Predict the structure.
Amino acid sequence: MEQSRIYLCLAHMSESNLEQHYIKEAFDTNWIAPLGPNVNGFEADLEAFFDDRRKVVALSSCTAAIHLALLELGVGQGDEVLCQSFSFCACTNPVTYCGAKPVFIDSEPDTWNMDPKLLEIAIQDRVEKTGRKPKAIIVVDLYGMPANWEAIEAVGRRYDVPIIEDAANALGSFYQGQPCGLFGELGTLSFNGNKMITTSGGGALLCADPQTKKHVVFMSTQAREPFPYYQHETIGFNYRMSNICAGIGRGQMTILENHLAHHKRLHQLYHELLQGVDGIALHENPDNRYDSCFWLNNITIDPELHFIGQIDPHTSCEPNPNVEALRVYLDQQGVEARPLWKPMHKQPVYKDAPAYVNGISEQLFKVGLCLPSGPCVSDENVKFIIKCIKDALV
Ligand SMILES: Cc1ncc(COP(=O)(O)O)c(C=O)c1O
């Protein structure tokens, strides 16, 4: 049988089609709006998932959630915000939307997330250089792996700098038994099409109390004052999730636990099948404090290994050429693999931003690949992927 293409992480709907049921209900009741019963229901489902320890605001994206989180913390023109360099641009761009400046912090080798020691060095150095403390810290649980929260939160407390936890990849991950999303002052989630659950596009902001939630809802709906006519005293945003998207989210919440179990099973399978493959290391929980949802499974590859894939000599390639050869080979076999994030401090758009680096994220970018991991990936697919990797070794 011909192998169909295997993607990194595709959207996957419930077998009972609950997503369509909630969407149909929205149509039938004409709640085609950025508010309605699905929005309230989805927020309630998420609040229950987090044991009612946070108030949730459903938004149009995680990027919007990070933007509003920064505004809640009072980030504005000229402020500095400490950002995890090894991540997607969506974690940093909202800093610039606020007129503030990102300052990048490199990763630690175990979690691949923000290095707490560099974070402390950066805070001290920014105070010395600018005379002001950074206004906030954005820490990411990248690919589902929790950050080193005990150490990160201790630094935040020591210098009294608030933290935003970007748990876009980490719905269902835990650190020391606490769900990701609950660390720091505010937490963010993504429900983009490739995430642990999807609303097609969407995100959420996890707030500590009802007053913060009320203000975030106000800001996300154009900051409309409570008048019978349109009265605006603040610049707001059109960031609320629609009742249609939230309907998808309600259906998806019913299969979140299945998705989590599936991602973790695939991780275990990758782990078993990669035993004895010298020079290829799966990114694993560093110790028993960490319980990653393994949104994506990632490998790092010894750059001395050679693979049979042919890379185009005319295209410039920043990852290691041997690693890129493996990616090309997998692509030809119908397997989507993707280089790990290119660190933000190496992105041309942020070339002038201060950065506190140790070389870890640059090295990970050069030698790492994300492998297919979602609910549409079967055990047979994983076996095929590992076979391809072994076949490609020269
Ligand atoms: C770590 C991280 N943060 C934020 C985002 C942005 O999420 P959204 O697409 O919902 O804005 C992503 C998207 O992939 C992400 O990986």
